[in-house]
Write a structure and sequence with these properties.
Shape: globular
Number of strands: 8
CATH architecture of the largest domain: 3-Layer(aba) Sandwich
CATH topology of the largest domain: Rossmann fold
Strand order of the largest sheet: 2-1-3-4
Distance between the termini: 24 Å
Structural class: alpha/beta
CATH class of the largest domain: Alpha Beta
Number of helices: 11
Strand content: 5-15%
Length: about 350
């Protein structure tokens, strides 16, 4: 009796996406797709349509295009080329057992394009890897939903395995800690900020099925338990705690904050932009900012913190803000992510 042929496994590294170019039209198209996601702006569809078409898409694309132009490179968007390089590194680490593709929810290369490539290669088992260390409905949840919907569109629907958030994995914490440690050694800062992408507060409270924990108890995110195990803020606080323990950072000289808020509803606190100016007002002159919710440098790291954040800090009296580079496609991180995927997906063990 012949042995079954070992089938390759498709591995799709999923991120949110990026405009095709920094032109206003391309940025408007991207924002229209991204912000129309009901997991991102979770209001009734008609309200979201009015908000997008009569307010956001009338004013924001030009401003965002200006910001994208500041970070655009000869290779295009940093999020794109870092992602492609990471996929290449993970492919090398996994070898012939896998076919690795980068895919964006919004923009190209797209998730349907990845599944088409897998189908053409005869692959019927796909490992989905959301490139978000911590779980949030607007990021991980949205990415997983998009992958499931793309798979369901295939005539031969592939089997799927989803790699869970990897914020606690040693490869991720180790890589982030090493990058931060290098920056600290070079700059000798008087304060460290760990800045995570923000989400509206209700995105966290909706993960608390007890209804009695999230934002209902003092320091509700300081420990992980059943009520907040899927809470984005709690996972971010745990990530920060893991990094601080590895580097033995002084809590008195380390602040966790949340950036990129949008709209008028309350977002999780404290807000990074306010923290930066407050630190300057307190006499902090040399700070280092790391962003452990991003695995690749992008608009939110390079422009929001590395440019605008630095300008705001200096305008408030600070001297220097050093942005810690993301993991991007470092060889250690590519190998580490491949190890995380192998441990999670038994098809690759």
């Amino acid at each position: 009796m012949s042995e079954p042929v070992q089938e390759k496994v498709g591995v799709v590294l999923v991120n949110t996406g990026t405009p095709a170019s920094p032109a206003v039209a391309d940025v408007r198209r991207y924002l229209g797709q991204f912000l129309n996601d009901p997991r991102v702006i979770d209001i009734p569809a008609w309200h979201r349509w009015l908000l997008l078409n009569f307010i956001i898409l009338r004013f924001r694309p030009a401003k965002s295009a200006h910001a994208y132009r500041k970070i655009w490179t000869e290779r295009g968007s940093p999020l794109l080329f870092h992602g492609l390089d990471l996929a290449q590194g993970v492919q090398a680490a996994l070898g012939d057992q896998a076919m690795v593709r980068l895919a964006f929810q919004f923009g190209e290369p797209s998730i349907p394009q990845a599944f088409q490539a897998f189908a053409e290669a005869g692959i019927t088992r796909v490992c989905v890897v959301p490139l978000f260390p911590q779980y949030a409905s607007a990021s991980t949840g949205s990415a997983v939903q998009a992958a499931i919907e793309a798979a369901a569109e295939r005539w031969v629907v592939p089997s799927l395995h989803v790699v869970p958030p990897f914020w606690a994995e040693p490869e991720f914490l180790g890589g982030m800690s090493t990058h931060l440690q290098d920056a600290i050694a070079q700059q000798e800062p008087d304060h460290v900020v760990l800045s995570f992408h923000g989400v509206p507060e209700h995105h966290c409270t909706r993960t608390d099925l007890t209804g009695a924990h999230c934002l209902k108890k003092p320091n509700c995110c300081d420990t992980l338990e059943a009520a907040n195990n899927s809470c984005y803020r709690a996972q971010c606080i745990a990530t920060a705690r893991g990094i601080m323990e590895r580097l033995q950072l002084d809590p008195a000289n380390t602040t966790v904050a949340f950036q990129s808020r949008l709209g008028r509803v309350p977002w999780i606190k404290p807000y990074t932009d306010l923290v930066l100016t407050e630190l300057a007002a307190q006499g902090k002159r040399n700070i280092v900012v790391a962003e452990p919710s991003f695995v690749a440098d992008c608009l939110e790291t390079l422009e929001e913190i590395g440019m605008r954040g630095r300008e705001d800090f200096k305008a408030a009296g600070g001297s220097e803000l050093t942005l810690v580079r993301s993991l991007n496609a470092d060889g250690d991180w590519a190998n580490g992510l491949a190890s995380i995927v192998r441990r999670s997906c038994t098809w690759l063990s």
